[in-house]
Amino acid sequence: MKTSCLLLLCLCLTGTAFGQKKSVTKLYFYCDPSTELSTVANSGNPIRISRCTLVETTLDSLGLKIFKNRTIYIPLQPGRTYYFRRIISSYATVNAPAILSACSEEDFWLNGYFSGMGTYRHYFLDKDSGLKLLAEEK
Q1: DSSP alpha helices (H): ranges in the chain?
Q2: In the predicted model, what is the mean pLDDT of residues 7-24?
Q3: What is the rounded CA–CA span in Å between residue 86 and residue 34?
Q4: Average pLDDT over residues 44-53
Q5: Given strand 120-126, what is the order of strands in its sheet?
Q6: pLDDT by residue (tens digit) across 70-86?
Q7: Which residues lie below 8 Å from residue 33, measured CB to CB, with a gap of 6+?
Q8: H or E stretch covering 36
């Protein structure tokens, strides 16, 4: 009886240890007009952000290349969903300053709905496999 219980316990622990997958973090970006986002994990292949872009990642932080010598890291909690929107302060000039800010889920989807979502892109970003475009809908 002890042997069978011990064997069953070993099988359960082995299944738990090998069956765990990394938790995926979701990042939604909204930007009008479209822009590109370069990260440390995909420096040669920037993420094209249009009206609605979803980036799923298993990384624990997202390193954004802001300037040539400057990288900003956003710490990520596994399994959490983040929402960001880029706001243009004035459409009068070509080089109008923009602000990237975190927002709530409701704010993200309502602003996207009323301004028209347009192109939707879905990416997966992983340290080993890099950046993959999973879906693009217009």
Answers
A1: 2-19, 105-115
A2: 57
A3: 10
A4: 81
A5: 98-102, 81-88, 25-31, 52-57, 120-126, 130-137
A6: 888 889 999 999 999 88
A7: 88
A8: strand 35-37
